[in-house]
């Protein structure tokens, strides 16, 4: 494990780290409170593009975790920032929910199905065959293909749900065009959050529960990476990967004294 430097900035994944299936992870409330009281800048990250920052803040508050909207960074926000950087004032055909459409509107994008610059695929619980067909035809017509995140499935109380990555694969199969994924494990999302808190990679920690998204993304962004075992990853699975986290702990409760 890498030697720990002074950590002045914190980034944390949400699902599997702070909450699990809608319930707070034991110790997460005290960890967030300690972060807030310390005055150290932090952001809570999520690949979920369905909800706005305010929506997620309210959902976290219902679980007893008080995170202001401004301290949340989503793949939808990262996607809007990316598109604004690439083609300011552009247009997009969007498959997604309010978190994505609001972010794109705020970035000055026009949402249209008339010869858009981009087809942007995000998360939704109501994927429509009609919408997917329209996206395929627009991409065949020359629209560039962007997706908020590569996650193939998402969790629910009933079991797995098809997510953005799975639907993106369907569109790619039909068009032969691969999307550019903006969310984790793209280190661009991590660097975007880091810029928001004006942090420095050598003194920033990234907490996550997945080796293939959170940890590899943090590592590629040059951050101190912390794997918690309250999500999908188990300790015996870590050695399967060609990279390692800087630190492995059972949960965020073990990190309270590091803040």
UniProtKB/TrEMBL annotation:
<protein>
    <submittedName>
        <fullName>Acid sugar phosphatase</fullName>
    </submittedName>
</protein>
<dbReference type="GO" id="GO:0046872">
    <property type="term" value="F:metal ion binding"/>
</dbReference>
<dbReference type="GO" id="GO:0016791">
    <property type="term" value="F:phosphatase activity"/>
</dbReference>
<dbReference type="GO" id="GO:0005737">
    <property type="term" value="C:cytoplasm"/>
</dbReference>
<dbReference type="InterPro" id="IPR006357">
    <property type="entry name" value="HAD-SF_hydro_IIA"/>
</dbReference>
<dbReference type="Pfam" id="PF13242">
    <property type="entry name" value="Hydrolase_like"/>
</dbReference>
<keyword id="KW-0378">Hydrolase</keyword>
<dbReference type="Pfam" id="PF13344">
    <property type="entry name" value="Hydrolase_6"/>
</dbReference>
<keyword id="KW-0460">Magnesium</keyword>
<keyword id="KW-0479">Metal-binding</keyword>
<dbReference type="InterPro" id="IPR023214">
    <property type="entry name" value="HAD_sf"/>
</dbReference>
<keyword id="KW-0119">Carbohydrate metabolism</keyword>
<dbReference type="InterPro" id="IPR036412">
    <property type="entry name" value="HAD-like_sf"/>
</dbReference>
